[in-house]
Amino acid sequence: MAGKDPDRGRTVSTVLGRRLGGELLRMREERGLRQAEAAEALTASAPKVAKIERGQVPMRDPDVRALCHLYGERDEPAIERLLALAKADRERRKAHGWWNQYPQLGAMVEYVALEDIATNVRTWQLAVVPGLLQTPDYARALAVGNGHWEDPDEIEPFVESRMARQARLGGERPLELWAVVHEGALRQLVGGRQVMREQLGHLLDAARQSNVKLQVLPFLAGAHPGMTSAFTIVSFAEPGALDVVHLDTTSSTLWLESDTDADRHNGLFDRITRLSLAQRASAALIDGILKEM
């Protein structure tokens, strides 16, 4: 019945839900339609459509197709893209992963949950080694150094959770990781020389994996487009098809969920990679820094 909402009690906004809802909202507004007209096509209520557009409820494939039909979308690849997004969102909502055991993750829990179902991650890091490539001692030294933890006993569970994330780089469906790191992050003595020697050696080992691409942006590159902030692009299909952008600041975690934001950061990442050393030259630079230590 139109007045009964089967999703009552499941109205939790998710990153992927908001991404999908934003797309459907844009399509509806471009057609000049009201929520009530969308609700009629779904045999649902206008509040249900509002929840969909806010990313608060999962969507079934028939509902996605019904709205695409109403909004005049006939391009099958575009529809398939929305269906893939709806599927990824349903999988995210059903997941009861290991990350729920670690309250120390805080606002990062949503990122880790999405990383678990992602196909590709492209990350630009200005000041630190990417979390997926950190050693335990390096992660521990970062946690101690940032002074975030009031209770030192919380640091070890945090380090454990960071190491657990790295399982995504192996297994039957390994995550494709493309990481670009600034040279300064590799020379910063996080934890001291021994910790950094082990960290740099670990980077060289990781870069040999077929699903890991590692580049270094050297000091000699001079001014570059990534100087203002680090960011990570998380993809759920081919890169550029279903992307969200994650920014982790000192005070908050920010998600950029629109096509415009994704396109802008994809272009930014491409420009940074072109200024960076190629993979073999990057490995040689890392090895040189390691020998200096």
Describe the secondary structure blueprint for this structure.
Blueprint: H1 15-30, H2 35-42, H3 46-53, H4 61-70, H5 76-94, H6 109-117, E1 120-125, H7 136-146, H8 155-165, E2 176-182, H9 183-187, H10 193-206, E3 212-217, E4 231-235, E5 243-248, E6 253-256, H11 259-275, H12 279-292
Parallel strand pairs: 1-2, 2-3
Antiparallel strand pairs: 1-4, 4-5, 5-6
Overview of the structural elements:
The longest helix is centred in the N-terminal third of the chain and has 19 residues, at 76-94. With 293 residues, the protein is α/β, with parallel strands linked by helices. It has a six-stranded mixed sheet, sandwiched between helices. It has helices spanning 15-30, 35-42, 46-53, 61-70, 76-94, 109-117, 136-146, 155-165, 183-187, 193-206, 259-275, 279-292; strands at residues 120-125, 176-182, 212-217, 231-235, 243-248, 253-256. It folds into two domains: 15-94, 434 Repressor (Amino-terminal Domain); 99-292, Endonuclease, Chain A (2-Layer Sandwich), CATH 3.30.870. The chain is built from twelve helices and six strands. It is elongated and about 70 Å long.
Number of domains: 2
What is the highest CATH level, the class of the largest domain?
A: Alpha Beta
SS-based class: alpha/beta
Helical fraction equals 40-55%
Spatial extent as radius of gyration: 21 Å
Largest sheet: 6 strands, mixed
- CATH-defined architecture of the largest domain: 2-Layer Sandwich
The overall pLDDT average reads: 88
Spatial order of strands in the largest sheet: 3-2-1-4-5-6
CATH T-level topology of the largest domain:
Endonuclease, Chain A
Order of helices and strands, N to C? HHHHHHEHHEHHEEEEHH
Number of helices: 12
Q: Low-confidence runs (pLDDT<50, min 5 residues)?
A: 1-9
Q: What sort of overall outline do the alpha carbons produce when their principal axes are compared?
A: elongated
Strand content: 5-15%
How many angstroms separate the termini?
69 Å
Number of strands: 6
